[in-house]
Amino acid sequence: MNRQQIPGQLELVFDAAPELTDDLRAELTAHVVPGWQAMGACRSTGDDTWFPDETDTTGKTNAVDRCGFCPVRRSCLAYALSSGQEYGVWGGTTELQRNVVARDLVDGAPVVDALDGATLLPEYLWRQAA
Question: Global pTM?
Answer without folding.
Answer: 0.79
